[in-house]
Specification:
Blueprint lengths: L2 E4 L13 E4 L6 H11 L4 H4 L10 E5 L2 E2 L15 E6 L5
Parallel strand pairs: 1-5
Antiparallel strand pairs: 1-2, 3-4, 3-5
Length: about 90
């Protein structure tokens, strides 16, 4: 099963300019996907993950249309979903 990861503009310097990365192989959770992405593109890790190995507060990760913040965090199962999106948080005042 191929998993497609949508990469936001601010991370593309670390993914060789790719807006979309495909992973093949055995990935069952959002954490597996991020681990594999960071293995392939090490510069992504510090921009997405904090020093505790959690997704940074200003970064959102979606499996399909669901934010992993509300579906089990890094343990969120992919199920039949084949798309993961990394989206920077938007805030303002």
């Amino acid at each position: 099963m191929a998993i497609v990861i949508h990469i936001p503009g601010y991370l593309r310097d670390w993914t060789q300019g790719k807006a979309r990365v495909e992973l093949d192989g055995d990935v069952a959770t959002a954490g597996d996907v991020l681990d594999r992405l960071c293995e392939r593109y090490p510069g992504v890790r510090d921009r997405v993950m904090d020093e505790r190995g959690e997704v940074r507060m200003h970064v959102n990760v979606f499996v399909g249309e669901e934010s992993i913040r509300f579906t089990g965090g890094l343990a969120t199962a992919l199920g039949d979903e084949h798309e993961v999106s990394i989206v920077p948080a938007v805030s303002g005042g």
